[in-house]
Amino acid sequence: MKPELYDRTHAGLRFDWPRLPPILKSLDGIPEIATELHFMREKSSHRGIHRLKKLRNAWLINVNQEFLEEISEVQQLQLLHIHQTTATDLTPLRKLRKLRRLIIRGGTKVLNLDWVHGLSPLESLAIENFKRVEHLDPLGELKSLIGLGIEGSMWTAMRVASLAPLAHLTRLRSLFMINTRIKDQSLAPLHKLQNLGLLECASFFPDSEFIRLRKAMPNLKCACCDVIARYGSTRAGSAAFMRSIQEQYESQMSQLSISDEEEAPWIEIRNPLDDH
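Structure (tokenized):
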């Protein structure tokens, strides 16, 4: 049976940001019955947030250790999105027994994933730019996950030892590993995840790994697997992309007069692999 396909939105890891509540920098005037909050900490402006006992969804910015400990007292939270944290100890999150979606972007001071032990049964988890983390072993306990993101930042890759712990996540439907490098360069732990429908990753693995992955999981949506099927290798696919850039540029420039060329603010370049 073909696995159900989940993109980032359906996996609970992406939001329609314009529809979220406006960002607030003060708790003044927020009713205690509020169920959603989009908040940016400035100095100690977060103090008192534990009084918002009805909060179910929170998007928080600039979360320090004290802020993390206080938000962990809000027992009704089901969704918690943290953008940039200086916290080093995430174990207070274990108190959030109703939490189902946890996204933390910018956990640069977190040393490991031991804090995952004892978390509530999460459905979605994303960690981004946890650059000090080397081992994913604790993630193997999160057997309720359907969406998982383990990603580096735009400028810094996340480097981990192995994907082996993920072999236990049999409910997983979507896996996102943009700018993530795996030291053992093996995708084999994913082969038995029969519910996995989507893998997003860069071509940081040998082509042979993608070939074996496609053979084991023919219904998996994986751009790198598709590139190899179309061009023979990821290197050939990259070369085809670069040729396409040059051809599109030359074609569009040839349609411009010299004066138009001087005024043209930009030239649209399409990735041919987007058609795949």
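The CA atoms of residues 3 and 194 lie 7 Å apart. The chain has a mean pLDDT of 92.
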